[in-house]
Design brief:
It contains no helices and 17 strands. By secondary structure, it is mostly beta strands. It has a six-stranded mixed beta sheet, with no helix packed on it. A four-stranded mixed beta sheet has the order 14-15-16-17, with no helix packed on it. A three-stranded antiparallel beta sheet has the order 11-12-13, with no helix packed on it. A hairpin with a 3-residue loop joins strand 6 and strand 7.
């Protein structure tokens, strides 16, 4: 028979304010440490501990017409689980590795999906760029005009523009050619071009 204990005379044995042994149904709202004022079905002031020495710990979330989700904890990880699709969505291993779509992440952060795994970066709701991995390789996509590379002083050093032009040391100016470099270029071998190579001073290669 299930039992609910609100207080026990032996504090060494029952350390929590509310302990449920087995199944229990409470009609109405429950407040623990609230001083009598409760606005939700369950409100707890203080820490909550969920423990089970012989089985996984779970908290289920159900909504009529929606998927069923749960937070679960086993001996090796804590994870968010879509119980409707039987999919482990977000995982934190005991060692700290995090997996999104990957239940056994081998790196500090591993992101996995069935196809075209993508990370979208936004600022104020506006998309700025994305990184994705697909069947042909790794893709870096620009959503806002250019891809910038900056140094440790947060100054622009190189930019790849939306039309494919590359500027090194050109600042915020659009390059005049497919590759424009402000500064010296040193080449230990040949520089081959199908068009014109021009500069404000001599061009050396060798």
């Amino acid at each position: 028979m299930a039992k609910v204990r609100l207080r026990d005379l032996n504090p060494a044995k029952f350390l929590n304010k509310l302990e449920v042994d087995g199944g229990a149904e409470i009609v109405g709202s429950v407040g623990v440490g609230t001083g009598g004022t409760v606005t939700d079905k369950l409100e707890v002031v203080g820490a909550v501990r969920i423990s089970n020495l012989s089985a996984d710990k779970k908290i289920h979330f159900l909504r009529t017409g929606g998927n069923e989700f749960s937070f679960e904890h086993d001996t090796s990880s804590f994870y968010l689980y879509n119980r409707t699709s039987a999919t482990e969505l977000f995982t934190i291993l005991n060692g700290g590795n995090i997996g999104i779509g990957q239940g056994a992440p081998s790196e500090v952060l591993t992101i996995n999906s069935a196809s075209n795994t993508r990370i979208l970066l936004q600022e104020g709701g506006s998309s700025k760029g994305s990184v994705s991995a697909g069947g042909s390789g790794l893709y870096i996509r620009n959503h806002a005009g250019r891809i910038l590379f900056r140094n440790s002083s947060d100054a622009d050093t190189m930019a790849i523009w939306d039309d494919g032009k590359v500027g090194i040391g050109t600042g915020s100016s659009v390059p005049d050619a497919k590759l424009q470099v402000v500064g010296n270029i040193l080449s230990g071998k040949k520089i081959v071009a199908s068009g014109t190579i021009s500069g404000n001073s001599d061009v050396f290669a060798g």
